[in-house]
Automatic annotation (TrEMBL):
Belongs to the tetrahydrofolate dehydrogenase/cyclohydrolase family. The gene is folD. PANTHER family: C-1-TETRAHYDROFOLATE SYNTHASE, CYTOPLASMIC, C-1-TETRAHYDROFOLATE SYNTHASE, CYTOPLASMIC-RELATED. It catalyses: (6R)-5,10-methylene-5,6,7,8-tetrahydrofolate + NADP(+) = (6R)-5,10-methenyltetrahydrofolate + NADPH; (6R)-5,10-methenyltetrahydrofolate + H2O = (6R)-10-formyltetrahydrofolate + H(+). Pfam families: THF_DHG_CYH, THF_DHG_CYH_C. InterPro entries: Aminoacid_DH-like_N_sf (IPR046346), NAD(P)-bd_dom_sf (IPR036291), THF_DH/CycHdrlase (IPR000672), THF_DH/CycHdrlase_cat_dom (IPR020630), THF_DH/CycHdrlase_CS (IPR020867), THF_DH/CycHdrlase_NAD-bd_dom (IPR020631). Its EC number is 1.5.1.5, 3.5.4.9. It comes from Altererythrobacter arenosus. This is Bifunctional protein FolD. Homodimer.
Length: 290
């Protein structure tokens, strides 16, 4: 029976560390870390995630500033808002929820955020720092994936890790983090030929293709560790819907450990956002005293 890696419990522990860090900061006479959350449009899933983020900020003592803009917001208006947030000293972190409406160039928007406030780690400066192993803010989902892996594997050196998915916000940064820890990393995607055979060589599979139940039981080697980043809403046959991951969960009980969906990577994404916001606030304080 595969061990279930409990992302909710791990996220609660990380939130507690963040809450203590925020309280210490306040005790030293500093203001609470501030996070600006920008949502453009009314994508239902994004609405849910943003609401979770704002509630989570309140739980740990981070001040959140919510900016909800209509779907037809011009790109320039969004750039103007970000320019204002970049120079606002009460704002230590800025996140722009993605996906953005189609008329907005996400690359331009994410590239306009001050890298020091880029708590999503999407700015090219932070991407470059991650790929050169020189610090910076690390994207929340990949950071959460590494923390989940650390609960079941002590040392990644030399292990075969197969990442399925090549997105800029998940697949590519996870590959960088695994490489940094000396794993042997193969980045694959939905078009990769012979994906089942490649996956079967893996000690670690990180499935982030956004393709429900893609990874079948026969793709998985006995004793592998499986991290499921996929979250897709599918009809449940009773008029409602439920969430499924990229891994055919019921077929992988011969794995060593697996993350559930929901309750695996998702809660860690939000916990890592809070911890990145505290980190950005601490960095700002250090820069001020330097
Ligand atoms: N600016 C960003 N946009 C997006 C990111 C991101 O990290 N930064 N990631 C995803 C969405 N996301 C956070 O924004 C996110 C996804 C899922 C969860 C989560 O807790 N999922 C729960 C299930 C909740 C549900 O859907 O009912 C779980 O897996 O248990 C949190 C955050 C894209 N956009």
């Amino acid at each position: 029976m595969a061990q279930l890696i409990d992302g909710r419990a791990l996220a609660r522990g990380l939130d507690e560390e963040t809450r203590i860090g925020v309280a210490e900061r306040l005790g030293r006479g500093h203001e609470a870390p501030g996070l600006a959350v920008v949502l453009v449009g009314e994508d239902p899933a994004s609405e849910v995630y943003v609401a979770h983020k704002i509630r989570a900020c309140a739980r740990v003592g981070i001040t959140s500033y919510e900016h909800r803009l209509p779907e037809n917001t011009p790109q320039d208006a969004l750039l103007t808002l970000i320019a204002r947030l970049n120079i606002d000293p009460t704002v230590h972190g800025i996140l722009v929820q993605v996906p953005l409406p189609r008329h907005i160039d996400a690359g331009v928007i994410l590239g306009s955020i001050d890298p020091a406030k880029d708590v999503d780690g999407f700015h090219p400066v932070n991407v470059g720092r991650l790929s050169t192993g020189t610090g910076g803010l690390v994207p929340c989902t990949p950071l959460g994936v590494m923390k989940l892996l650390d609960t079941v594997i002590d040392d990644l050196t030399g292990l075969n890790a197969v990442v399925i998915g090549k997105s800029n916000i998940v697949g590519k940064p996870i590959a960088m983090l695994l490489l940094e820890r000396e794993a042997t990393v193969t980045v694959t995607h939905i078009e990769t030929r012979g994906l089942p055979e490649i996956a079967r060589q893996a000690d670690i599979i990180v499935a982030a293709a956004g393709s429900p139940r893609l990874v079948k039981g026969f793709w998985v080697k006995e004793g592998a560790v499986l991290i499921d980043v996929g979250i897709t809403r599918v009809p449940n046959g009773a008029g409602g819907e439920h969430l499924v991951g990229d891994i055919a969960f019921n077929e992988v009980q011969h794995a060593k450990a697996v993350t559930p969906v929901p309750g695996g990577v998702g809660p860690m994404t939000i916990a890592c956002l809070l911890s990145n916001t505290l980190k950005a606030a601490r960095n700002a304080e250090e820069a001020h005293h330097a």
